[in-house]
Amino acid sequence: MLRHALGKTLRFLGYTVQYGCIAHCAFEYLGGIVVCSGPSMEPTIQNSDIVFSENLSRHFYCIRKGDIVIVKSPNDPKANICKRVIGLEGDKVCTSNPSDFLKSHSYVPKGHVWLEGDNLRNSTDSRCYGPVPYGLIRGRICLKIWPLNDFGFLRASPNGHRFLDD
């Protein structure tokens, strides 16, 4: 009786560990569902919108300008942030705020990206903390799931003029 109960318990623990490893790999390498909070990505992503973030792009270095990414916050490693990629390594980016009279520019260093929220007036982003290491990127948002009336692929940046091409 004890041997039977012990066998069932060990079998259950074995399955739990196996399925836990599968779930971990799926969420780490394939993607997952994310609830976004805060106003920095409005109007593209509203507070409490639910999105799908795929993680393969970051592993294969397929992140491009205009992509919306989930990143470990440079200010708080326990938090994730959602921002749009404005510049990749070697790109020239506008580092000033839209309201600044004099515009300043800089180049994104090797191994980094420049991130900005779509709501430029209410976003803490690379204009505050500088370029972000590529290694902090957790995933790329590719689909909005909720609310259902906004289901689908994400819109282009309302700040397309901030992408520099020289």
From TrEMBL:
GO terms for cellular component: mitochondrial inner membrane peptidase complex. Its EC number is 3.4.21.-. The keyword Membrane applies. InterPro entries: LexA/Signal_pep-like_sf, Mito_IMP1_subunit, Pept_S26A_signal_pept_1, Peptidase_S26. The keyword Hydrolase applies. It is found in: Mitochondrion inner membrane. The gene is Immp1l. GO terms for molecular function: serine-type endopeptidase activity. Heterodimer of 2 subunits, IMMPL1 and IMMPL2. Residues 16-97, 103-146 form the Peptidase S26 domain. Signal peptide: none annotated. Belongs to the peptidase S26 family. IMP1 subfamily. Keywords: Hydrolase, Membrane, Mitochondrion, Mitochondrion inner membrane, Protease. This is Mitochondrial inner membrane protease subunit. It comes from the Eukaryota. Pfam families: Peptidase_S26 (PF10502). It is an enzyme of class 3 (hydrolase). GO terms for biological process: protein processing involved in protein targeting to mitochondrion; signal peptide processing.
